[in-house]
Amino acid sequence: MENTVVSSWNDFDPLKHAIVGRADFTCIPPAEPATEAKIPEDSDMRGMWGPRPQQTVERANVQLNTLAALLESRGVRVDRPQPLQWNQAVMTPDFSTGSSFGCMPPRDVLLTVGKEILSAPMSFRCRFWEYLAYHSLMQKYFDEDTEFRWEQAPRPRLADEAYKAGYFEEITIEERLERTANLDFVTTEHEPLFDAADVLRIGKDLFCQHGLTTNRRGMQWLQRHYPAHRVHTVNFPGDPYPIHIDATFVPLRPGLVMNNPNRKLPEKQRKIFEANDWEIIDAAQPAHDSPPPLCYSSVWLSMNVLILDHNTVIVEASEVNQIEQLDALGFNVLPVEFRDAYPFGGGLHCATGDVLREGNCEDYFPKQVPGTQI
Ligand code: DAV
To answer: Which of 304, 322, 352 to mutate to test the pocket of ligand 1 (most atoms within 8 A of CB)?
Structure first.
């Protein structure tokens, strides 16, 4: 096999090499300051924790393997992480929690920007060690690509100061929406925090969702770490649980992005897209009324698609409305069944990580709008 080359600047240029997650040993983590805010009050997961039922793990792995095989059949090289025994307790000088989470969603942890793959701090305590599942892949890329930059953001302490105490008192959805609109999230600004899946890469510009998992200091850290990039802060007031940008704001190809119609990008933040002739369209309605059992994510995983190139996209097979919309936009849509994998950490975009896409670091937003950059 050819030596690895690491490079990716966006989510839409031709995909050549990707990581596809695994469901093995995935746990439902015990409640902790950062996760309680995410689990909706009426969720079947409240109060539950421990390894997920083996049958569901096997079903998820079948779908993850099918996705990997589909990618390979399209000429995309695929690597897989090495799962750890995620049911081990996590203990540091600052905190302890009953278990880790898993390694189904590499997108949450690994941020690929050009020739660099950066492990994000992660703001959940249960995700502190998750990057270890990718360690041997990073070592391999390091050995095979002499220009690969193997990076790690500052490890967070995640002590009590990192979270707002009492953030989870039972409150209504309306109150949650008010908090989102006021940029009042569970994390404090005690230390830089971000998850990789809050960062949307569009060439020279990085759009970061300010939400439950990413704070302003995290974005400041990213701006200093990527001085040649422009880091913009975005937020989506209609989302009661704003975690990760990839079921909310999803670029499809240069000049076109789809936005969750329930989580609209605010007027002021749309200006940079308008000024550069980017079109923002509403994503199609999800085909399902509710997520599958024991799932953290919303029904909007419908728009969590994986783009293979400017004309080809993988979409969950039952998401008929999303398929129809992308088809009408001229995409060749490849359907793949994936709902059994959703509870393990998200959709098709979540479950993958970029190693190599063709293309360079383009400037898609030459007309900058004052006030959006962090
Ligand atoms: O809509 O629940 C899911 C994103 C998972 N990485 C949502 C966001």
So the answer is: 304
